Each structure stands twice: as C-alpha cells, then as structure tokens.
Amino acid sequence: MARSNTLQYMILGLLTRTPMTGYDIKQTFDKEKAEFWTAPFSQIYPELNRMLKTNLISLLEIPEENSRKKTYQITTNGQKFFKEWLLQPLAPNVLEISNDDFILRLHFLGKEHKDTLNQLLNLRCRTLKVEIAQLELELAEVVHHPEQLGRELIIEKELSNKKIDVKLWNKEITRDQH
Q: What local confidence, expressed as pLDDT, does residue 40 receive?
C-alpha cells in the first residue's frame, strides 16, 4: 500500500508526463508500480483533492460529453515541488534510504540527473550492505535449527536478491567511469 507522501510524489511524477484523470492515474500506477506499491481509488482521489487544495495540481478544462470526468494537470508550483524533492541532495550524514523512497526517486530520475542518480545508488548500496550483514547473522543462527528450514530459505532468497541489487547498482555507478 502506498504511503501518503509516496502517493503524492508518484502522482506528481506521473502528471509531469501528461494530464490524466484519476482513472488514468490508477491504471498507470497499476501498470508501472504494481510490483512495488498498490494504491486503490480510495487513496488516490483524496490525495488528488488534497493536492488541488495545496495548488500542486489543477483541473484541466476539457469540454467533453462526460462532465463528471476530471482531468488533472501539474501546476508550476507542483513541478517545482516535485523537482526539488527528486533532485534534493542526499546529505552525507544520511546513512540509509528506505526502499520506497529509493524506488520512487529512481523511477523518475533520467540520464540528465546522473549525479543525483549515482548518489542515490551509492546510498542504496550502503543500506543494502547493512541489510546483507544483518541477514547473514540471522542465517548463521537459523542453519543450526533444522525445524526452521523454511525461514532459512527465505533468508537465503533475500540475501540473493540484495546481493544482485548491489551488483546491478554498482555496475550502473561505474558505467560512465570507463
């Protein structure tokens, strides 16, 4: 389930591409983000209303047969707000980044933001290395308990996934350095 800030940034990011109805936002969200988050209409529409009130988005007047259909567009204020969040520098004292924040920012960063992308990837690698170390400690305990084989397999799967992520992110970081 998407958190409010996550949902706000997701909607703003989608609206940087093109104006959309709430239905379009839900469809795009499900198509592009279903692997990471879900957001039902019961979360999307209240968030759209809140964002309208704070002038991050506005309604686009489109003369159509269906007058109940609302099309939303990002405002200049919303574009500025979204870009500031997307490109905010990662402070040196920040030691880890949540997976939600990482995936969301990663999704909207383009090649023109390579420095920010590399900062983000480096921070995520540091976070993953800590998580890998914790999982390895947990695994060392579990292997001595045959009755916890299922848990052992889950830990091994998580370890494998996190190690693959570190390898992929490091490959991207060093891509332009050769």
A: 83
pTM as predicted = 0.78
Nearest to 7 by CA among 38, 53, 28, 52: 38
Q: CB–CB of 59/72 below 8 Å?
A: yes
Give yes or no for a contact between 62 and 71, defined as CB atoms under 8 angstroms apart.
Answer: yes
Instruction: Look at the block and give the residue holding tokens 């976070």.
Output: 127
Mean pLDDT per 10-residue segment, the chain (178 residues): 70 94 90 73 93 95 72 96 84 76 87 89 92 96 93 96 96 82
Residue type (1 letter), 92: P
| Cα(171)–Cα(19) distance, integer angstroms | 35
What does the angle CA 139 – CA 142 – CA 147 come to, to the nearest 5 degrees? Answer: 145
Q: CA-CA distance, 124 to 126, in Å (whole number)?
A: 5
Q: What is the pLDDT of residue 4?
A: 46
Q: How far is CA 29 from the centre of its chain?
A: 11
Note the helical H segments in the chain: 4-15, 22-33, 41-53, 76-87, 99-108, 114-142, 149-174
Question: For the sheet containing 20-21, what is the strand order?
Answer: 20-21, 71-74, 57-60
